Amino acid sequence: MAEETNHRSITESAGRAKQKVLIVDDQPLNLAFAAAEIEDICDPIQAYSGEQALKLAGIEQPDLILLDVQMPGMTGFEVCRLLKQNCQTAEIPVIFLTCMDEEADEEQGLNLGAIDYIAKPFSPAILRARVRNHLLIQRQRMQLERLAQCDGLTGVANRRSFDQVLNAEWQRLAGIKEPPGLLMIDVDLFKGFNDHYGHLAGDQTLQKVATTINRQMQRAHDLACRYGGEEFACILPHADQGGAKDIAESIRSAILDLRIQHAPSPVSDWVTVSIGAVSIVPTIDKAPDTLISQTDQCLYQAKTGGRNQVNPG
Ligand SMILES: [Mg+2]
């Protein structure tokens, strides 16, 4: 589930619904009051206990948590500590709501990873202003995270997210004995293209190639990445050898169909790509590097074999 969110977040637009705020308080009146105060700036979710808060935080993935400190059973401090220990909830910002206003408590809360502290009884205006500010920061943080996963020139996933996603998929698929397919794609004679047409035209070509590759990623978990320079890679979870080869072939012909002139190329009048396409079932004892180097080898053979072709393993 977490993987799915990550994959999608790379390519999906930033547009999204109202941000969610989880409010945790053992007093129903406090909960209703806080929710009513902020419901026009966010989508409030209510929890009456620490246990319920932990459960809802995992399911709802709120953008912010307002957490009462004094609750029977699990205290807010304990809830915060558990939230920060769980990788699914560790990044969600927490604000403590409490009537204890001693410095030591505030310090303890902040040390546990809370970003702010609001003393009860709070004024509605202060609550709204703080929530609004923190939601804005959270939205900007998510945008930065998305940008950090994207290649600046082409907008597809970058090398960093390629490494992360391939590693995660490798582990996941090893567990269910299913293969990932991998494509390594190289724009043929790209140095010659740049020398002839200039780097600006080269950049535009890389953008068109990236967009075209991305368009062929039609299944939910397929991911196109810029691997480096004029090289792209596609991670294709659950694609067997035949499936990987078919997707590679559709990419190769779609690039040719762009009809981007490439005068110095001896291969074709147009820009073409060579593709290595490999699918293997991972085992935990092997690293995904095995798949990368096999696919790289196939790409090399596609190039030495005359370019503008797919070489399956
Ligand atoms: Mg309380």
UniProtKB/TrEMBL annotation:
PROSITE patterns: GGDEF, RESPONSE_REGULATORY
Protein EC: 2.7.7.65
Residue numbers of 4-aspartylphosphate PTMs: D68
Keyword Nucleus carried by entry: no
Domain GGDEF: 178-313
Keywords on record: Phosphoprotein
InterPro entries recorded: CheY-like_superfamily, Diguanylate_Cyclase, GGDEF_dom, Nucleotide_cyclase, Rev_trsase/Diguanyl_cyclase, Sig_transdc_resp-reg_receiver
Protein name from the UniProt record: diguanylate cyclase
